[in-house]
Specification:
- By secondary structure, this protein is α/β, with parallel strands linked by helices.
- The protein has two domains: about 1-20 and about 230-415, Enolpyruvate transferase domain (UDP-n-acetylglucosamine1-carboxyvinyl-transferase, Chain), CATH 3.65.10; about 20-225, Enolpyruvate transferase domain (UDP-n-acetylglucosamine1-carboxyvinyl-transferase, Chain), CATH 3.65.10.10.
- The chain is about 30% helix and about 25% strand.
- The protein contains 14 helices and 24 strands.
- The strands form six sheets. A four-stranded mixed beta sheet has the order 22-23-1-24. Strands 2-15-17-16 form a four-stranded mixed beta sheet, covered by helices on one side.
- The structure holds uridine-diphosphate-N-acetylglucosamine (UD1).
- Uridine-diphosphate-N-acetylglucosamine (UD1) binds near residues 124, 160 and 165.
- Uridine-diphosphate-N-acetylglucosamine binds next to helix 1, helix 5 and helix 6.
């Protein structure tokens, strides 16, 4: 297993190019199951989760190639309808195959993903939604089996705006005759990008990006050429990472239009941000940040995926800040590692209170999930001395070439192959 050796830095400057969005690319690639025709997707980030998607689609019978950030998918055989445990275990988003398989073949089977380090993560909203469309759900050998004689359009109100359930339901509804309305759906920008891709395949979708999506089913979808939006979580991570050290960083091929709350928090902490349309400049004050508190929330609120990174940033704030995690029940796994670097944090249930210290100290640390890993990179880069970060494979699931990008602007990070 690879490690990162990270030394604290005082100042960085230069340009970093932002990759395509992981959370938009995953449903977009999986939506290729809705058509027999060729699908070509550009600006796909090179990530372990994308590799897992390639393996999953190949397993199901698609033929995929992935070179130079371009993913090409064709279909020469009949497809399997089952996402097995070994593939779902690696990546929860594998359950997104259920929607398109159900729509096309009236049957789908996927292994129950089980818990993970950030929480129990049930799939009840996905399953309740499929039931509303006329599907029958049963369980066999740890798998969920979904089947339908006839799927019917319906009005479905989600009890929580789940990103994955919204996407699964959209993929099922696009091929069901009549109008399906999804209420209280997720409003994340990735949903809008995903809907734009589906529309390019011939789907009739209105309202993506708002809390009600209307879908008029069509008989079939066509192939498509589409380019994935920039990764807003990678953008936010680099914005916060740059703020945590002194300097001036330009993030290219992205904007912070989908990161309004995060930008506001950064500005309140003392950082200057210039959105230049297709790039974002972060100018840090060089001083310890001012404390900024918030509660995570579905979009447009503060994203849970940047909570850990922000918490690491606040470890050096001049004063006390509080972070309330409202999306996942166990998303403070990074706190134990930060304490070992000298941070002062107390956690009570879903709230962390951070009392800033002048400087963290490098230490051996371990990533427990993608975003906790990114948080530890922020902490180690702003600390004095050397840190060795283990379980880098978590970070490789969500950040494309993070160490090369960081080194190009002066961060001190090297990968030790294990
Ligand atoms: C997606 C993102 C992930 C992000 C999360 C929340 C992808 C590939 N991943 O994950 O990076 O952190 O949104 O913004 O896009 N829930 C249920 N029942 C369900 C489904 C979800 O109770 O059937 C709960 C979850 O346990 C969690 C909350 O709803 O507490 C949000 O989950 P959801 O929006 O579904 O997240 P994902 O789609 O898994």
């Amino acid at each position: 297993m690879d490690n990162f050796v990270i030394n604290g830095v005082k100042s960085v400057s230069g340009n970093i190019s932002i990759s395509g969005s992981k959370n938009a690319a995953l449903p977009i690639l999986i939506s290729s199951l809705l058509t027999k025709e060729k699908v070509e997707i550009e600006n796909v980030p090179k990530l372990r989760d994308i590799q897992s998607t390639l393996e999953l689609l190949n397993y199901l019978g698609k033929k995929c190639s992935f070179t130079s950030n371009k993913f090409v998918i064709s279909e020469n055989h009949s497809l399997k309808h089952h996402a097995p445990y070994d593939l779902v275990r690696k990546m929860r988003a594998s359950i997104l195959v259920a929607g398109p398989l159900l729509a096309r073949f009236k049957q789908a089977r996927f292994s129950l993903p089980g818990g993970c380090t950030i929480g129990v993560r049930p799939v009840d909203i996905h399953l309740e939604s499929f039931k509303k469309l006329g599907a029958h759900i049963s369980y066999s050998g740890g798998d969920v089996v979904i089947s339908a004689k006839h799927l019917k359009a319906a009005r479905v109100k989600l009890k929580f705006p789940s990103v994955g359930a919204t996407e699964n339901l959209m993929m099922c509804a696009v091929l069901i005759e009549g109008e399906t309305v999804i209420e209280n759906c997720a409003k994340e920008p990735e949903i809008k990008d995903f809907a734009d891709c589906l529309r390019n395949m011939g789907a009739l979708i209105e309202g993506a990006g708002s809390s009600t999506i209307k879908i008029m089913g069509v008989k079939k979808l066509t192939g498509v050429k589409y380019s994935v939006m920039p990764d807003r979580i990678e953008t936010g991570t680099f914005m916060i990472l740059s703020a945590a050290v002194q300097g001036e960083i330009n993030l290219l091929n992205t904007s912070c239009k989908n990161l309004a709350v995060v930008s506001k928090c950064l500005e309140r902490s003392g950082v200057k941000i210039k959105d230049c349309g297709n790039s974002v400049k972060i100018i840090s004050s060089g001083k310890r940040p001012k404390p900024v508190s918030f509660k995570t929330a579905p979009y447009p609120g503060f994203p849970t995926d940047l909570q850990a990174v922000w918490l690491a940033y606040m470890c050096r704030a001049k004063g006390k800040s509080a972070i309330h995690e409202s999306i996942f029940e166990n998303r403070f796994m990074h706190v134990g590692e930060l304490l070992r670097m000298g941070a002062k944090i107390t956690v009570t249930e879903d709230k962390a209170v951070i009392t800033g210290v002048d400087r963290l100290k490098g230490a051996p640390i371990m990533a427990s999930d993608i975003r906790a890993g990114a948080a530890l990179i922020v902490a180690a880069s702003a600390a004095s001395g050397k840190s060795t970060l283990r379980r880098v494979y978590h970070i490789d699931r969500g950040y494309d070439g993070i160490e090369e990008k960081m080194r190009s602007v002066g961060f001190k990070i090297i990968r030790k192959k294990g």
